[in-house]
DNA sequence: ATTGAAAGACCGACCAA
DNA sequence: TTGGTCGGTCTTTCAAT
């Protein structure tokens, strides 16, 4: 999975910025903005996808609108014997966990979780706490977002119907 | 900014799922998959954008590849007099803050921050700590992600060149 | 929601610097 | 190697049904 070192020039960065702003912008339009032809833009995009710089194109949605009304960050404290590897396997089994990472500080890992409601969140949390090597969890439930169009405010695990 | 209540039917949810999976999927292809014509799909997408269910289409990139090599979550403790409103204004001035929310628990808010490196992060943190109503901060620096293709693993504040 | 037609986007092949 | 041009094909988009 390790890829060759990628060097992006200024044109590449402008193309990426344009696609982050609107992933459906046509290559011709991007090209017009930076002084390149549409096929030239496409070649650069293909190269960056190949290199793994661009990993995909997605729609951002309001999770609320899809029924994900509860969001939380959960600090996880593990038994000292448990390797991060083990945690990674567990975490993948929960569609409600939309991000998980190891962190500095007292906790071993931080989970970003979306659930349909508090009841759903409680069920997920209970399942997580029942995992053998997890010692304790500390939850911070999100009350409100302070940035409207943060990229990750639109992150959602799919549709509730798919995962419940 | 308050919008009319939106009701999504099953077709709408399938369209959204398809666009989350790949925002550049053609309407014709989505239509073929769910038994609708391309114009019918387009009108539903337009309606959902209008209603604010779909907020945009973006490219997901590896922040590392763009030079964002340091990521952290920072708990913020405020003076009890400071309203969340005030915090929202401040937070918008930092391009490095890619998400900010009020949370339950001891902290008043949680910030999700990306910086180019530790030095950059330290500068950002010092500026934040210098804000008048902030009493203390607790940082958790992200060591490694446990989920490969988490939607928000690709969230990045732009290009370092734009913001530094 | 579908059809049909015009405008536009995509994508490969080929050529020039 | 990187960009430009060209042509065939698919997609988008708007009207009318």
UniProtKB/TrEMBL annotation, chains A, B:
<dbReference type="GO" id="GO:0043565">
    <property type="term" value="F:sequence-specific DNA binding"/>
</dbReference>
<keyword id="KW-0805">Transcription regulation</keyword>
<dbReference type="GO" id="GO:0043200">
    <property type="term" value="P:response to amino acid"/>
</dbReference>
<protein>
    <submittedName>
        <fullName>Lrp/AsnC family transcriptional regulator</fullName>
    </submittedName>
</protein>
<dbReference type="InterPro" id="IPR000485">
    <property type="entry name" value="AsnC-type_HTH_dom"/>
</dbReference>
<dbReference type="GO" id="GO:0005829">
    <property type="term" value="C:cytosol"/>
</dbReference>
<feature type="domain" description="HTH asnC-type">
    <location>
        <begin position="8"/>
        <end position="69"/>
    </location>
</feature>
<dbReference type="Pfam" id="PF01037">
    <property type="entry name" value="AsnC_trans_reg"/>
</dbReference>
<dbReference type="InterPro" id="IPR011008">
    <property type="entry name" value="Dimeric_a/b-barrel"/>
</dbReference>
<dbReference type="InterPro" id="IPR036388">
    <property type="entry name" value="WH-like_DNA-bd_sf"/>
</dbReference>
<dbReference type="InterPro" id="IPR011991">
    <property type="entry name" value="ArsR-like_HTH"/>
</dbReference>
<dbReference type="InterPro" id="IPR019885">
    <property type="entry name" value="Tscrpt_reg_HTH_AsnC-type_CS"/>
</dbReference>
<dbReference type="InterPro" id="IPR019887">
    <property type="entry name" value="Tscrpt_reg_AsnC/Lrp_C"/>
</dbReference>
<keyword id="KW-0238">DNA-binding</keyword>
<dbReference type="InterPro" id="IPR019888">
    <property type="entry name" value="Tscrpt_reg_AsnC-like"/>
</dbReference>
<dbReference type="Pfam" id="PF13404">
    <property type="entry name" value="HTH_AsnC-type"/>
</dbReference>
<dbReference type="InterPro" id="IPR036390">
    <property type="entry name" value="WH_DNA-bd_sf"/>
</dbReference>
<keyword id="KW-0804">Transcription</keyword>
């Amino acid at each position: 999975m390790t890829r060759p070192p990628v060097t992006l020039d200024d044109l590449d960065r402008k193309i990426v910025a344009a696609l982050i702003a609107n992933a459906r912008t046509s290559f011709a339009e991007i090209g017009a903005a930076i002084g390149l032809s549409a096929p030239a833009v496409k070649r650069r995009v293909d190269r960056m996808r190949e290199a793994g710089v661009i990993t995909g194109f997605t729609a951002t949605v309001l999770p609320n609108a899809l029924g994900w009304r509860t969001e939380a960050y959960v600090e996880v404290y593990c038994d000292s014997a448990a390797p991060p590897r083990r945690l990674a396997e567990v975490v993948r089994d929960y569609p409600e966990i939309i991000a998980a990472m190891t962190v500095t500080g007292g906790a071993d890992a931080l989970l970003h979780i979306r659930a349909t409601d508090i009841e759903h969140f409680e069920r997920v949390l209970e399942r997580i706490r029942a995992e053998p090597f997890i010692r304790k969890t500390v939850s911070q439930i999100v009350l409100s977002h302070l940035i409207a169009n943060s990229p990750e405010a639109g992150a959602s695990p799919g549709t509730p119907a798919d995962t419940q």
